[in-house]
Amino acid sequence: MTIIQEEDFVLSIADAFQFISYYHPLDFVQALGEAWANEESLAAKDAIAQILTNSRMCAEGLRPICQDTGIAVVFLKVGMDVQWKAKRSIQEMVDEGVRRAYTDPDNKLRASVLRDPAGKRQNSRDNTPAVVHYEIVPGSQVEVICAAKGGGSENKAKLAMLNPSDDIVDWVLKTVPTMGAGWCPPGILGIGIGGTPEKAVLLAKESLMAPVDIHLLREKSAKGITLTRAEELRLELMEKVNALGIGAQGLGGLTTVVDVKVLDYPTHAASKPVAMIPNCAATRHVHFHLDGTGPAILVPPKLDDWPKIIWQPNAESAARVNLDTLTQEEVAAWKPGQPLLLSGKMLTGRDAAHKRIQDMLDKGEKLPVDFAGRVIYYVGPVDPVRDEVVGPAGPTTATRMDKFTRMMLEKTGLIAMIGKSERGQAAIDAIRDNRSAYLMATGGAAYLVSKAIKAAKIVAFADLGMEAIYEFTVEDMPVTVAVDATGISVHQTGPKEWQARIGKIPVVAA
């Protein structure tokens, strides 16, 4: 009989979520390094270089890979010969571990979990409760997987109840382009097939916890070893999803995914549930066992095993922009895909701030901040520690602000925006009509971006926490012109160009 002590379990959970906040799984880092080496798209190659540089910086500085430090997900396989010496439930113990991890003063993580999701949506302030999945299995150990899943990738989860005769590959290839780039590719796709709807989704999520091993499957196939249908699907989808040309950050390129995972389960004769969940460029999970001898010991990866890739600002290829003197005419002159280095003062704002601005304008109230002639950055930063002016501060998904874009451009005097991923047509139309521009920062490079921020202060809506409006002073912050003043979007032109170059999937006319 194995006895698991409450404090050992709680401490292990806390250590695990701190660990994955700053250490990428090494297999994923090395797969990204291979993708960088093979990439032919200059924009995608630059984005992957930023992600890899950010990854190494976080491993060295023990700071979060992404400002979205995720919702805590825990998979538990509890041996039937295990006994707990604890006063709290397993859910309560997991939550205590998450609470300790996310409020650790040496590496405070962003609390993103909101209670009363259909009502007041109030932040729990410590990222609890976690989402816990249990399984009771033979044995005398507790197997634990801890994962931090960001909203950008979770929001792209898909579920379909296909007919038994429907083709899964066709569904995936039709669905992936609809996901946009808000899930921050290059990443991993998890596919769950069969069971019931909720089982398929759980299979998709659980599949993402496995290491990157598509290369081993290729070797197995090359040797003529018989593959299961799930393994055949992995290889087929890996090739065909990458042939879509979506590429890093949706800019177009050779690598959209570094692996595809598939788990299946028997299903009803009339059913074919299929779920798909992506893991983003901030893939974060760790796997350990508890056997009653104490808390888990997590061994850090070796920095020498990181690809030798260091991204630095390149003033020769990027135009320097002074935000303090920026004019509408300068914004209108930017070209699609043009790299920029921003310096000066910018404002920030996300969903909650935009909704409050809308409510104030509707009531005829004066805004607490003057947006005229300013640039806004869609970000919810991590709190600073030690001598930082701000914690990791990468971009959030811009499409969530699409419905506010015309209002901001036409009623506040805003002249440009910064975020991650594509914009929807309504936002593109507003940008074109107002001769504005949308700039894209690299998702998954939050710590790297934060180093360009030299000063930060809250200037409005402090009660919104990480969603407050900040004023950042930046120096050489790297961005790319994603939508120009004429309404050309690189997230539309880039993937089409690279799909045509790759030439394995017919290009569908718009």
Summary?
By secondary structure, this protein is an alpha/beta fold. It contains 15 helices and 19 strands. Helix 10 (328-333) links the parallel strand 13 and strand 14.
Structure notes:
The chain has helices at residues 6-22, 26-38, 42-61, 90-102, 151-154, 168-175, 197-207, 214-222, 229-242, 328-333, 351-362, 402-411, 425-433, 446-450, 490-502, and strands spanning 2-5, 71-79, 82-85, 114-115, 122-123, 131-137, 142-149, 158-162, 187-194, 257-265, 272-279, 285-290, 319-322, 339-348, 375-377, 416-419, 437-440, 453-460, 469-483. It is of the alpha/beta class and 510 residues long. It folds into three domains: 1-150 and 285-292 and 303-310, no CATH class; 151-281, no CATH class; 319-494, Fe-S hydro-lyase, tartrate dehydratase beta-type, catalytic domain (fumarase, Alpha-Beta Barrel). Strands 14-15-16-17-19 form a five-stranded mixed beta barrel. The longest helix has 20 residues, at 42-61.
How many runs of DSSP E, i.e. beta strands? 19
pLDDT averaged residue by residue? 96
Number of helices: 15
Computed CA radius of gyration, to the nearest angstrom: 23 Å
Oligomer: single chain
How are the strands of the largest sheet arranged? 14-15-16-17-19
The CATH topology of the largest domain comes to: fumarase
What share of residues are in beta strands?
Answer: 15-25%
Assign the structural class, choosing from mainly alpha, mainly beta, alpha/beta, alpha+beta, or little secondary structure: alpha/beta
Number of domains: 3
**CATH H-tier superfamily of the largest domain:** Fe-S hydro-lyase, tartrate dehydratase beta-type, catalytic domain
* Overall shape: globular
Terminal-residue CA separation: 64 Å
Summarize the main sheet: 5 strands, mixed, barrel
